[in-house]
Design brief:
- The complex is a heterodimer.
- In chain A, about 55% of the residues lie in helices and about 10% in strands.
- By secondary structure, chain A is α/β, with parallel strands linked by helices.
- By secondary structure, chain B is mainly alpha-helical.
- Classes of the chains: A alpha/beta, B mainly alpha.
- Chains A and B meet through helix 1, helix 7, helix 8, helix 9 and helix 10 of A and helix 4, helix 14 and helix 15 of B.
């Protein structure tokens, strides 16, 4: 008991010091970062590399036909308090249209708010609504992490869902969790990121590492993900960059075009 | 591992080691428990350069296995002696007092966590993270959440080890009582419980969803195995541990496990792992202490015991002293480590997460843990020899409602 009393005395000034330090640095650091941020939203090549291929997408694009994409996502696929079309799925669609002008790209979205991977997997039949998309992009993991669903159950649900999606003849891409500097204190993301990597590897489907890319942007100062001051505008820019990166990722995995520099619109 | 009592500690060494430990204290246990505490701290920080040094990147098991095994070993060693000298009732009372201390430590850490998270929740609202902020929904019903936390069912991030430790210690009187009579039967029963746990998926419920992250019914195997080693098992295993065949098997297993771990970081290597092995092996379950993890720990322990004899002079070098001191005050240092991990997260988030800041936080954390451990040792030493009768200080503390 005496040790614990000692700990209290030691610990509390530490926390207050941290808070004060944080407040001071937060005030001074944020503007400095905003000035130096580069305009392009590049993600390093190693974060966009994947061994897995998207044969159905390649076929559709080569034939110059239609590319139907279904995005199954949760709240973090949208920018809350912003108009539709600002979430990363819509930005990806726009980027794909730019990159593949000869292809009719159409994207539909199934927003599954507060649904775990198991909820979604059980409901896939209804989500597809008889449609047969060329590519299904499944963004998941966040709700499971928030509810600390047993990673084994998450694994099983993801496995079941991916198998079912592949059975419909679609290519599948997984999108993992968001990175947020504050989130790591509250949400244990690592087991869910690991499971998603393993499932993607087992099914030989590409995994879009949203977490790694956002982490990179935060580390390099491209986006100050910590700050609340940027509000909706920054959220929109992050989603725009994610959408572009995802479009490139899909094209690279489908091997439909030799890699080329990002189009400069903006 | 062999216990210190089995080893003839040479006299001068015993004198030198005397200040912080009773004669014959097994310094290797303290060393590795101290290192495990450091690794747990580093693993609780967001991934950084230092994380690459922690053992979970080089094989299946991690610092938690070391911590639980050594806790079982030392608990059996200390309270086993109390059981022999003072009887079952007194030994059990001491164990329950310890359980209470661990429980209070856990609740204290929860309070700090609550303070931090409430601060974050009220101060910041980034529209990018609306979904993730759902984790804070529990703040909307503190009446439920705080009660669930006191019942050990609601355990936020990084707060899973102490509840496991509490449950294991609660069963320690029973384990010790049986272990003193039938050590092998006790170990066999522990294995049976482990198997039944896997067979029927037994676990304790958690709040708001799911089960305990560290399943006590599975992890008890390591704890009981530690106790079994402490009460003579290690001595009986000595011939097995010094055999070359055991070493070869241990090294082969560690190497294979290292390779598999490597494929998680370099997916290109994944092609070298045959499909049937992959489907048999995954997922490697931490919650229920996967057999692969347990065996990895055994291999690691066997190799360590083989390479590092109990009388290795390096154990008394000043370079290892910080880790050993930390290991000798494990509960306090564990709590400080969890707190420092919270504080580290906080600073990383507030100040920005450059690799240098990360490095400084990791190093400072380890230095603070070591300094605190040194302070506890110093106080214990002073309290033990200072004053005419050390007990009288405690007695006076009792008068003012304090005491230990």
């Amino acid at each position: 008991m005496k040790a614990l009393a000692g700990l209290t005395a030691r610990a509390m000034p530490g926390a207050m010091f941290g808070a004060m330090l944080g407040a001071i640095v937060g005030m001074t650091a944020a503007p400095a970062r905003a000035e130096t941020s580069p305009p392009a939203c590049t993600a390093p090549a190693y974060l966009l590399a994947t061994e897995a291929r998207l044969p159905k997408v390649a076929e559709a694009v080569r034939a110059g036909g239609k590319l139907d994409i279904l995005v199954i996502g949760s709240r973090s696929a949208t920018v809350v308090a912003a108009p539709d079309g600002t979430g990363f799925p819509a930005r990806m669609e726009a980027a794909l249209r730019e990159l593949l002008p000869s292809v009719a790209v159409s994207m539909s979205m199934q927003l599954q708010i507060k649904k775990t991977a198991a909820d979604v997997a059980a409901n896939l039949g209804r989500l597809l609504e008889g449609a047969s998309p060329t590519l299904v992009i499944w963004q998941t993991g966040t709700v499971d992490a928030i509810r600390s669903v047993d990673p084994d159950n998450f694994n099983a649900a993801l496995d079941e869902g991916v198998s079912a999606l592949k059975k419909t003849g679609a290519d599948v891409v997984l999108v993992n969790l968001q990175y947020g500097p504050r989130m790591e204190t509250m949400i244990s993301t690592a087991p869910y990121l690991d499971v998603m990597r393993v499932v993607a590897q087992e099914h030989e489907i590409p995994l879009f590492d949203r977490f790694g890319i956002m982490h990179h942007w935060n580390d390099t100062g491209r986006f100050d993900l910590f700050s609340a001051a940027h509000g909706v505008e920054m959220a929109k820019r992050v989603h725009d960059c994610l959408g572009r990166a995802l479009a490139r990722f899909v094209i690279d995995a489908a091997e439909v075009k030799p890699p080329q520099p990002e189009p400069t619109t903006k | 591992m062999t216990s210190a009592t089995d080893h003839a500690v040479d006299a001068p060494a015993r004198v030198r080691a005397a200040p912080q430990a009773s004669a014959g204290r097994e310094l290797r246990l303290d060393l590795f428990r101290g290192l495990a505490l450091w690794l747990i701290f580093v693993d609780h920080l967001p991934p950084n350069l230092f994380t690459w040094l922690t053992i979970r990147n080089y094989g299946f098991s991690d610092a938690t296995e070391i911590f639980i095994f050594i806790s079982g070993y030392t608990a059996a060693f200390v309270y086993g002696r109390a059981l022999t000298e003072r009887g079952f009732v007194v030994a059990s009372a001491r164990i329950l007092k310890r359980v209470w201390q661990i429980y209070v430590a856990h609740v204290f850490l929860f309070t700090i966590f609550l303070a931090e998270i409430s601060y974050v929740a009220t101060r910041f609202e980034n529209p990018l993270y609306t979904e993730e902020m759902g984790i804070l929904d529990f703040l909307k019903q503190p009446d439920v959440t705080i009660v669930q936390a006191l019942l050990l069912k609601f355990r936020p991030v990084n707060m899973d080890v102490l509840p496991l430790y509490i449950v294991l210690m609660l069963f320690l009187p029973l384990i010790l009582w049986l272990m003193k009579r039938k050590p092998d039967l006790t170990l066999a029963l522990s294995v049976v419980v482990y198997i039944l746990t896997w067979e029927f998926g037994i676990n304790l419920p958690a709040y708001p969803h799911g089960v305990w992250f560290f399943n006590p019914f599975a992890w008890q195997l390591l704890f009981v195995f530690g106790a079994w080693c402490a009460l003579g098992g290690a001595k009986r295993m000595a011939p097995l541990l010094s055999s070359r065949i055991t070493m070869a098997l241990a090294i082969a297993y560690l190497a294979a496990s290292f390779f598999v771990t490597l494929t998680w970081h370099l997916p290109q290597l994944g092609h070298f792992v045959p499909r049937f092995i992959e489907s048999w092996m995954y997922p490697i379950n931490k919650t229920d202490l996967d057999v692969l993890r347990f065996v990895h720990f055994l291999a690691l322990a066997a190799l360590t015991v083989y390479l590092l004899p109990a009388d290795w002079p390096g154990l008394r070098s000043r370079w290892l002293k910080p880790a050993i001191l930390c290991g000798q005050h494990s509960l306090e240092i564990f709590c400080i480590g969890v707190f420092l991990a919270f504080a580290g997260h906080f600073i990383l988030a507030e100040v920005g997460a450059g690799p240098w800041i990360h490095f400084v936080i990791s190093i400072s954390g380890i230095v603070i843990m070591s300094a605190a451990a040194w302070l506890f040792s110093w106080y214990k030493r002073v309290a033990a020899k200072g004053g005419p009768d050390p007990k009288s200080i405690e007695a006076r503390a009792d008068l003012v409602g304090g005491g230990s």
